Design the sequence.
């Protein structure tokens, strides 16, 4: 059964993006970009929603650094509104229930790794369904209090996290990887 890794990049205050800020918050991050291309999940099947698909397709075809290899990676887009064949190579469109589709993928694709890219509501649904094996966050050293949008953790259930790995990239970014456990509520004292 493949592992499912939820992958986020975030500002310190939990935003996935901020108005007016460039990709990677405008930071020169060669060590991080090198790791993205070399880590074990670099060739994993990427799961994303339609909005993230459109954004990433535009960035990748527009020459955004670090996204050159995305065309070769298998991608699955979950959308009830998209129709026809996706433009991006190696992309499969799933219009049905994402949770059930991912559950089936995990059951039928032994050994493969699945990972998400952005797609906040998709990730939240997969976590709530107990399908997420690893939760990885790369924290960028910025606070986007006035320009931030796409707050990552709004609407999430309570989740306990067991630290599996941590690493610093480029003397700036902090990678934190956890095994998540969805909780029924706060732990009892």
Sequence:
């Amino acid at each position: 059964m493949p592992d499912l890794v939820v992958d986020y990049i975030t500002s310190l205050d939990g935003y996935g993006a901020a108005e007016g800020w460039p990709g990677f918050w405008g930071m020169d991050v060669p060590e991080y970009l090198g790791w993205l291309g070399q880590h074990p999940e670099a060739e994993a099947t990427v799961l994303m929603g339609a909005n993230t698909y459109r954004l990433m397709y535009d960035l990748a075809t527009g020459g955004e650094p670090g996204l050159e290899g995305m065309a070769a990676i298998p991608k699955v887009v979950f959308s009830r509104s998209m129709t026809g064949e996706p433009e991006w190579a190696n992309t499969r469109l799933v219009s049905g229930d994402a949770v059930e589709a991912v559950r089936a993928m995990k059951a039928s694709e032994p050994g493969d790794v699945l990972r998400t890219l952005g797609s906040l509501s998709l990730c939240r649904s997969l976590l709530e369904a107990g399908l997420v094996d690893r939760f990885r966050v790369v924290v960028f050293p910025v606070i986007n209090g006035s320009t931030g949008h796409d707050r990552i953790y709004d609407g999430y259930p309570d989740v306990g996290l067991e630290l599996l790995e941590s690493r610093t990239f480029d003397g700036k970014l902090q990678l934190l990887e956890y095994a998540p456990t969805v909780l029924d509520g706060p732990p009892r004292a």
